[in-house]
User: Fold this.
Amino acid sequence: MYRRRRKPPAGELFSFDSFLDVVANVVGIILRLILVAWAGARSYKGEKIELPFSPPVEMVQQLGKRQPLPENPLAGRIREEEGKLAKAKSQLATRLEELAGTKLERTRMEAGRFQAKAELDKLATEKLALAKAKLPEQPFEPAMALAEPHKPSAKLGEMTERISKARDQIEYLGKSTKPGKVHRWRTPISQTVQSEEIIFEIRENRIAAVDIGSMLDEVQESLRKAGDVLQNQWVMEGTTAPVGAFRLHFTIEREKPAGLLGEVPKPDDRSSFRYGLTSWEVLPQDPKRGEPIEQAMKEGSAFRRIVDNLDARESAVTFCIYPDSFAAYRKVRDMLHERDMVVAGRPLPFEAPIAMSTKKGTVSRGQ
Assistant:
């Protein structure tokens, strides 16, 4: 008998038992991993880790400390300018008080002058009336006026004396109330001078010009030759020829490598380098240099020949003042302020020279 064979199924059917077996295996693996991790954590004991090197104690301490924030490099300059501003405000307040007192005194004297003038007019009227009432045959005698005060001649003499006193008082008040020279005070705020700077020295009430420009021109000539000299040394010094009553001692230095501390070795003459002017100092040649301040203020003086040819928009004048000459400085400052010149004052102690250094600076601040 012929038997028909069954056809195989078209695809593999899903088996729920196989799926459960896979899920059970995955869960078992996860549980085993959790148990292994738990057992390892219980059996772990902390051990000291040794580094291949031991860091210095100072380094560890520095790392443990909190580094302070760097100070603002302009904080000192700001404090200095605030102190100058406070001082200038105090001086301005003092000047305003003095001006208010002067105005009050002038008002009082003007009132006294008008009162004296009114009294004079009244006395003149009384004198005229007494002169008309005087008898023609009775001459005026001062001795009689003193001896007999009740007579018209005595009264007339008294009026004459009072009129004379009133006139003297009016003349005195008129002289006292004459307006003096008014100085226009600049605001107590300065700014760095950016224009051409002309320098004068005021010492022993004498003023002398310091021709820094001409002396620095000679220093520029030395700078061109300094490269050969600084091949084998760090510093080069020199002095210019006299210009007027002064000479200039200058220092040219070769730039040193960064981080060079302690004893400085001889420079390498085979390497390239930079150099420049680092400082100068003015050397006076004549102890009686300059002009007396009274002579310098007159037309035709050496001081006036310089300042009369300056342009207020392009030039600034710096005065290096020593302690014995502040009154002289105020005179020339007021004269230049009337011309709208920028004036900078640099007070110096007696032993201090006029000098510049790249480390300390020399920029003037003027009003």
User: Anything to note?
Assistant: The CA atoms of residues 16 and 22 lie 10 Å apart. Residues 135-151 have pLDDT under 50 and may be disordered. The chain is about 45% helix and 15% strand. The longest strand covers residues 275-284.
